[in-house]
Structure prediction request, 307 residues.
Amino acid sequence: MATDSETSDPRFGPVTVLEGPRKGRYPEGNSLLVEGTRATAIIDPSLGLVARSDPPPRVDLVLNSHCHEDHVAGNHLFPDVPWHFHRDDAPGIQSLDAFMEIYGFDGPIDEVFRKVLVEDFHFVPCEAPHTFAEGDVFDLGGVTIGVLHTPGHTRGHCCFSIDWQEAYSPRRLVYLADIELTSFGPYYGDAWSNLEDFERSLARIRAIEADWYATFHHIGVLEGRKAFLDRLDIFEAKIAEREQRLLEFLAEPHDLEEIVAHRFVYRPGDDVAFADSVERRSMKQHLDRLLAAGQVRSLSASRFCRA
Ligand SMILES: [Zn+2]
Prediction:
């Protein structure tokens, strides 16, 4: 069913996957168009949509899985329809300052990333976004979009369960947004991220039966539960792998800045401007729970060693 061409976007019942260039590898992404008999929604308008030569599709509402630069990059193409966010992320779209709080970057990175948001990701604030919450359902006519609040990546990160009938049989496509199932693993390195929330969200998503599972980035659409679970296992295993590597590193005493420099989320050579910030925030969460579990002890306020 999937194709590579921009001109024949993959379709799953009422859902069309508007594939971004490079299969939606960051900073690109794959947006979903969901067409009901009464209304059409677009989910996570991406940079790829901005780059398309065709005019943007006519829609009645925009649904954003969360407030991150790549997921709102095409929102400005739909200035006259309501933009919807989970109520925990909605404050972020109201101003550039509020958006930056989600990342929580330090001084110089904050300044650089503000420019990137506006110039490369077309950030446009929305003073009064519409909000949704866990369990809300958008009925588009013959197809519904149900909200699954799955925090961890951001506070208000959501997946969507898209449900319809085909030849009297129920069909479901679950949109996983940035539970992106890549081998990079889960991202919980922002001020509004939380590792343990992410783990609970993964457990919740694992239990959901669907015909298809779609991610925003390059994994795209997986058909059937086995393909999904195989990918989810690889993705989720990165959390334990980072924690195990941290424990091994702390066989010798180190402080947090040495942990940051060693690199557990990114690879040592990765050229990512905000890597230090992400490493610090991600690995501090692992460190804190290893301390709480008694597997690591503090030698001083800032030096740690395996217990
Ligand atoms: Zn994201």
Q: What stands out?
A: Residues 250-306 form one domain. The chain has two domains: 11-236, 250-306. Confidence is low (pLDDT under 50) at residues 1-6. Helices lie at 47-51, 96-103, 107-119, 195-206, 225-249, 256-262, 275-292.
